[in-house]
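U., I forgot to send this yesterday:
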Amino acid sequence: MHPYTDADFDFLKDADMIPTIHHADKPLYEQIYEFYKDAILKKHLNYRERLPSYRVLAKELGIGNNTVLKAYEQLVLEGYVTNEHRRGLFVTRIDHKDWHIEAGNPAMRVKEKQEKAWKPAFNTSIHLVDEHTFPMKQWRKCSNWALDSISFQYPEYEKDDPLKEQLIQYLFQYRGVRATPEQLLIGSGATVLVFWLAFILRNSCSRILTEDPGYPRTRQLFQEFNYHVKPIRVATHGIDLQQLAREKADLLYLTPSHQYPTGAAIPVSHRIQILNWAKKNKAYIIEDDFDCEFRYKTKLMPSLQGLDRDNRVIYIGTFSNALMPSLRVAYMVLPGQFPIPYTSYSYLTNTAPYFTRKALALFIEKGYWERHLKKMRILYKRKYEACIEALQALPENRIHFNQTPSGLNILLRIQSRLSEKEMLVRAQNNGVVVTPASVFYFDKSNQPKYPEVLFEFGSLPLDEIKKIVGKLYKAWFS
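Result:
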């Protein structure tokens, strides 16, 4: 940092405005540049004041002309001064409310560095996966195979999509989802596909029902296209069917296999009632099959799309949780006989690179995906059980949670007089970051009396889970 103080600029009242050079650890041109920059930002040099010529300044400082020229060029490049032909360098007009003033403050920079340097010991606030078990050797092998047959065309001009064939088989075998290549769209993440869906439906649909609490980004996407968004309360077994029966809408967004964030799963009998509601109202259900791969005590329930006989379900899935979030590959299955014209816009979903799709197709075809999924189910089951065991071992009955054996997160309801903000700060002070559940509620009247936090355990070390739960209890109840 450059320790210039106001005293360093006192002589600027004199005509020459020659800087003091006293930093031996920096190049001379950089010292000159920083001196004049600070003088301008701190208003010791005002608008239209002239800097000394490079020859005068070089002579006064006893340095080469090129050194001064290099400093002046940087000042001109960044807009602190302007070079007027045959007249010299003049200070430009700068809005001193701009953030650059704060950035030039050494105390602020130290504070920013401290904030950036601080990292929690354990982060349970982001939906992360266990990266230490990723089959890198097999993925590298598939990537090399994909390179051997890499395409140089735009995706929309490819005759065949290597991933579609594998996905169609996988989805039917494991989720009962029926799809054709024309129905199946692949994009870089579920959010991208939902955005595309909101776009193509904007002229034929106007009302959408969403879970409350539920995924906030989905609500925001549809609101961006001026849909009327209505929340439906989530109960023990998913959305409140009595409230749903009273509603009329064009769309219904659900996470039925593992409701996010409560973890509730919709039983088959309720799924049939939801499908009947969609048929009656001629509505479409957007089934986000979030975390469907991970159920720890029972078999996977059939997807809504697999139960649907009236072409009312739009199915969305992703590889983010089961493989890796950075892969950015998700898929959407549109209903058969879909009346919305979308083929002219389907190219907008081609956001997942062909190379990635090819490598992933090979990864599935060679059996690596299935083996990896079995391994992760065992690991995440052990982590889930460790979380439940640690929570149940806590003294008193102060932390309540839904023991739904699925997914990579657990919603904790804390019986405490602390506010949600106080709980987050205390947890952070103990080295643990958690997600406030309030961000998932659209209708604040649906929020419970006591604060809630979402505990994401996917990336946590198995042998540290008990310790982390203990840290949270200590933070909130000591």
